[in-house]
Amino acid sequence: MTKSTPLSQNKSRAPAKMPTRNSRRKGPLRRTRLSRTEIDTLFARLEEKMPEPRGELDYINPYTLLVAVVLSAQATDVGVNKATGPLFAVADTPQKMLALGEERLREAIRTIGLYRNKAKNVIALSKRLIEDHGGNVPADRAALEKLPGVGRKTANVVLNTAFRQPTIAVDTHIFRVANRTGLAPGNDPLAVEQGLERVVPERYRLHAHHWLILHGRYVCKARKPDCPACVISDICKFAGKTL
Ligand code: SF4
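That is the input. Now the predicted structure with iron/sulfur cluster docked in place:
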């Protein structure tokens, strides 16, 4: 029987954790450690396992998706869904959200971390959508990133999920998987995003985001990756594999 290798003995060059907001720096781009064939095989296997991958945040339309993603910062999708179910039943447009008002919105999302600030942002972005975009969510990165509480990651999720653009939003799961496997090593989320954009084959671009997130969340978990159950374990370059 193969013994598990403690993660503390990991000799991978990959950073163990995604850098915090304050420590993020634009680092140099690093090359993928996988061959073109390995990259193709990696995505073919993920596709075979999850032919139609979906995100796990509940939403009704692009606006509710945007709100759900803003609320999901430093919170779990399950926790966000619990709050947004009743919320979106009464407020699924910017107009209805403004009619609900910040106080009642705060009350509706009080189980979610940082809810006071998030409620402020949701009200402010709803106003901005009405004033600048006729109440619609723009399918444009620059316009999205100008909205209160919306950064590059949120914009990428919305562009990918609501508008089917081939963007990749690097969250903690994608950051970990890209570094451990050697697919797109990088010291910060932007470096990983740019690395993925260079190496993910065109035909896998649209779903790459969800495949990598779901793989990181359920298989390549932070504390104890489930390498024996991993469909890409023979390709992965992680030195601390638990095989
Ligand atoms: S083999 Fe292990 S470390 Fe590599 S991707 Fe799979 S679960 Fe993650």
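The chain is about 50% helix and 0% strand.
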